[in-house]
């Protein structure tokens, strides 16, 4: 069974969706570790309720990204992590982690990339007046939402949808589609390893 680390910065709704998928048997993986860069984030409580180990840190306490990413790497290696899953982690991944886990870091972005990369993607889509947006699951590289795309799912924007409505629609799709895609990735990796 694949061991994943989830990186999150906020409330942890996608973290919870992944936990739920594992508990229901829809995702054959183990969450070995939660990494959180905000020591007060609500996601930490969610992890503690399910006895998932947590590593929190405050980036501003370190002289550089390379230093705190080296410490994170040590935590990941101790936990024997196979994949890193970003679920609302609001930092760019640096070279230290990218080199330690090449093609093993997965991100969820709330738009159909390459449209609307970066922050506030849902708001960008609504302001642009597009009729269809969606979510993209992709491998992480050194750019901002530029890594190879793994899967995408479209979400329609109705004429009378507010920003809140679109956010709700996007989150509903994320909570189903992200665990499903992670399951496919875990199975693919397993098959390749035991060919």
From TrEMBL:
<feature type="binding site">
    <location>
        <begin position="12"/>
        <end position="14"/>
    </location>
    <ligand>
        <name>N(1)-(5-phospho-beta-D-ribosyl)glycinamide</name>
    </ligand>
</feature>
<dbReference type="GO" id="GO:0005829">
    <property type="term" value="C:cytosol"/>
</dbReference>
<comment type="pathway">
    <text>Purine metabolism; IMP biosynthesis via de novo pathway; N(2)-formyl-N(1)-(5-phospho-D-ribosyl)glycinamide from N(1)-(5-phospho-D-ribosyl)glycinamide (10-formyl THF route): step 1/1.</text>
</comment>
<feature type="binding site">
    <location>
        <position position="65"/>
    </location>
    <ligand>
        <name>(6R)-10-formyltetrahydrofolate</name>
    </ligand>
</feature>
<comment type="similarity">
    <text>Belongs to the GART family.</text>
</comment>
<feature type="binding site">
    <location>
        <position position="107"/>
    </location>
    <ligand>
        <name>(6R)-10-formyltetrahydrofolate</name>
    </ligand>
</feature>
<feature type="active site" description="Proton donor">
    <location>
        <position position="109"/>
    </location>
</feature>
<dbReference type="InterPro" id="IPR004607">
    <property type="entry name" value="GART"/>
</dbReference>
<dbReference type="InterPro" id="IPR036477">
    <property type="entry name" value="Formyl_transf_N_sf"/>
</dbReference>
<feature type="binding site">
    <location>
        <begin position="90"/>
        <end position="93"/>
    </location>
    <ligand>
        <name>(6R)-10-formyltetrahydrofolate</name>
    </ligand>
</feature>
<protein>
    <recommendedName>
        <fullName>Phosphoribosylglycinamide formyltransferase</fullName>
        <ecNumber>2.1.2.2</ecNumber>
    </recommendedName>
</protein>
<dbReference type="GO" id="GO:0004644">
    <property type="term" value="F:phosphoribosylglycinamide formyltransferase activity"/>
</dbReference>
<dbReference type="Pfam" id="PF00551">
    <property type="entry name" value="Formyl_trans_N"/>
</dbReference>
<keyword id="KW-0808">Transferase</keyword>
<keyword id="KW-0658">Purine biosynthesis</keyword>
<comment type="function">
    <text>Catalyzes the transfer of a formyl group from 10-formyltetrahydrofolate to 5-phospho-ribosyl-glycinamide (GAR), producing 5-phospho-ribosyl-N-formylglycinamide (FGAR) and tetrahydrofolate.</text>
</comment>
<dbReference type="InterPro" id="IPR001555">
    <property type="entry name" value="GART_AS"/>
</dbReference>
<feature type="domain" description="Formyl transferase N-terminal">
    <location>
        <begin position="3"/>
        <end position="182"/>
    </location>
</feature>
<dbReference type="GO" id="GO:0006189">
    <property type="term" value="P:'de novo' IMP biosynthetic process"/>
</dbReference>
<dbReference type="InterPro" id="IPR002376">
    <property type="entry name" value="Formyl_transf_N"/>
</dbReference>
<feature type="site" description="Raises pKa of active site His">
    <location>
        <position position="145"/>
    </location>
</feature>
């Amino acid at each position: 069974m694949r061991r994943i680390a989830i990186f999150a910065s906020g409330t942890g709704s996608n973290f919870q969706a992944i936990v739920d998928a594992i508990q229901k048997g829809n995702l054959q993986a183990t969450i070995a570790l939660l990494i959180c860069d905000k020591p007060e984030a609500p996601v930490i409580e969610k992890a503690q309720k399910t006895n998932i180990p947590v590593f929190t840190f405050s980036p501003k306490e370190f002289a550089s990204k390379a230093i705190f990413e080296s410490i994170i790497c040590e935590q990941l290696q101790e936990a024997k992590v196979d994949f890193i899953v970003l679920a609302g982690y609001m930092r760019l991944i640096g070279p230290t982690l990218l080199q330690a886990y090449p093609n093993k870091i997965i991100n969820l972005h709330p738009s159909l990339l390459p449209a609307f990369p970066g922050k506030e993607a849902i708001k960008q889509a609504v302001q642009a007046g597009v009729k269809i947006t969606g979510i993209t699951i992709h491998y992480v590289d050194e750019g901002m939402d530029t890594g190879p795309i793994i899967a995408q799912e479209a979400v329609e924007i109705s004429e009378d949808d507010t920003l809140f409505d679109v956010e709700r629609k996007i989150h509903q799709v994320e909570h189903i589609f992200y665990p499903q895609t992670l399951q496919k990735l875990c199975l693919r990796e397993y098959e390749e390893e035991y060919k």
